[in-house]
Structure formats: structure tokens, C-alpha cells
Amino acid sequence: MRRLKLFSLLMLALAVSLPALYPSPSSSAHAQQPTGSIPTVTGTPAGAIVALYLDDNHPQENVYSGPSIYLYPAIGVLLAGQEVPAYGYSEDRNWIQIYYPGVPNSVAWIYAPYVEMKKIGPLPILSAPPTPTPASTPIVNLNPTLVAAFITPVVSTRLPTFTPPAPLSIATFVNEDETAARIPMGLLIFGFGFVGALGAIISFLRGR
User: What pTM, to 2 d.p., does this model score?
Assistant: First the structure.
């Protein structure tokens, strides 16, 4: 009987000490929480915002990979009233670089007079991207014999003739001083006629 009571006391003491040796999972230590304010991130975009002018005649405008419609290809469109972030002006300030997803570097260029400023922000001057390399033109090697077969020879219908030029006439000019020193031709004729008439009269008188 005494041994039974001693065994019961020993079991009771063991049952009481077990929770102290093996703590329950709920009694876990908590780490110290950091003190101070945590910054919050807002979704408001920074910088300038531009939008395409609302125009019924032009519901959309092309955007290009660079600030020129001749040197760069069109890569998309901007709808009337659509607002997009702007990054900067071209060097001549005629084009604006905008955010345009789905293209290389997610940027495109729009002609500046087509858009209006919805939100004014800093717009630096940006350099134009390099122009795209033109596609190479394939060179076709043609057979000279085959090409010559399709060339019609031109046969001359007449031989070339040579026509001598007209003789060159050189104009002569009479010196006015020499002309003034000569006897007039009419006076000579009148003198010879007078002498002849006088001889005829003399011959007629001798004959009588």
C-alpha cells in the first residue's frame, strides 16, 4: 500500500514537469519589429504628358522610330485624345519622343504640332537615333550572250556625207583719205567725151 502511494506521487510529479520540459508550439518567440515610418509608393507618373488633338478628320496619327517621316519608318499610331508620357524634344524641337510600348526601347516619335501638353514637365533635347540600314539590293549576274540575243542592232540607212562650208567672204573697207585724193570717175568720162567731140568737129571742118 505504501509503495502504491509512492508510485502515484511519482507519476503525478512527472505529469506536472512534462509541460515545462517540452513547451507547446504556440509559445514561439516574436522578433522585434523595426521602428520608423515606411515610405509609400504612389502611381502618379512624373514628367510631361501629351495627348493627340481631338480631330474628326484625323482620328489617328502615325508615330515613327525617329524624328523624321523620310528617314525613319512608321512603327505605330496614336489615337485622338490618347495621353502618353513625353521624354523630350528633338534637336529642332519639331518632334517629341513619347512612351510607346511594344516597340524597341518602348519609345516612338510624334510630330509636335499634332499633340498638346496635358501635364507640363521637363522636356530635354534628345539626339536622334541612328537611321535604319537600307536593305541590300541583290545583284543579278546576267549572261552576256543571252543579253546580246535580245539587243536589236541598229543598221545605218545611209553613209555620212561631208558638205564643205561656204567660202568665207572678208569685208574690205576703203580708206576715206585715199578716196578723197582720187579724181571722180564721172569727171574723167566727161573729159574724154569732150575731147572726142572736139576732135570730131575739127575733122569735119578740115573736110570742107
Answer: 0.45
